[in-house]
């Protein structure tokens, strides 16, 4: 039932939302140029010893785009985010062999009816002709937002598991981890801990937005 409701919402969104900007509600074919101009570019940073990048600061328009996409399956918001992902160039000559999205926990998947990060990654991968390997299983309980920073960083080794049927696609590869928002970095570090068990992998991450300074 949840999947059907999400599909209906997506169809309605596709048919009607293009007539106005989903952020400011001005008449526009998708997200308007004025809203896009307010996006604040971020850049490179690291989570522990894991290097990576964020497209934007998690505020204003970036926060609104992610909210509309994740919670309302807004096609215009997704399309705007996708265009920036396609334009992004990995720094330092890093060339990913595959993209590995951070999967939603079971509670959020049930709530939303779809996996936003995986959905966006698949569209991005198709555009770039880069394989998307959904090789992680999210073992968390969906209560991350209720936990403080220290609680989020605890038990990183229990956050994710590898899907055994994807191991052959990941061994010896340059892997780009992909997530929507980095807050404490716990998700990225948990994924790093699991993936670095594989032989000869190289890791970097990209997030759409960075929410707060990370230690």
Would you write up a description of this structure?
The chain has a single domain, classed as Rossmann fold (3-Layer(aba) Sandwich), CATH 3.40.50. It is built from nine helices and seven strands, in the order ααββααβααβαβαβαβ. The radius of gyration is 17 Å and the shape is globular. It has 215 residues and is α/β, with parallel strands linked by helices. The protein has helices spanning 2-16, 33-37, 60-72, 75-87, 106-112, 116-128, 149-153, 167-170, 186-195; strands spanning 41-47, 50-57, 98-101, 136-138, 160-162, 174-182, 202-210. The model has no long low-confidence stretch (mean pLDDT 89). The longest helix has 15 residues, at 2-16. The protein starts with a helix and ends in a 5-residue tail after the last strand. α3 (60-72) packs across α4. β6 (174-182), α9 (186-195) and β7 form a beta-alpha-beta unit. Strands 1-2-7-6-3 form a five-stranded mixed sheet, with helices on both faces. A two-stranded antiparallel ribbon has the order 4-5.
Order of helices and strands: HHEEHHEHHEHEHEHE
Q: Please provide the count of β strands.
A: 7
Give the strand line-up of the largest sheet: 1-2-7-6-3
Name of the top-level CATH class: Alpha Beta
Low-confidence stretches: none
Quick rundown:
The chain has 215 residues and is α/β, with parallel strands linked by helices. Helices cover 40% and strands 20% of the residues.
What's the helix and strand layout?
Layout: H1 2-16, H2 33-37, E1 41-47, E2 50-57, H3 60-72, H4 75-87, E3 98-101, H5 106-112, H6 116-128, E4 136-138, H7 149-153, E5 160-162, H8 167-170, E6 174-182, H9 186-195, E7 202-210
Parallel strand pairs: 2-7, 3-6, 6-7
Antiparallel strand pairs: 1-2, 4-5
Helix pairs in contact: 3-4, 4-6
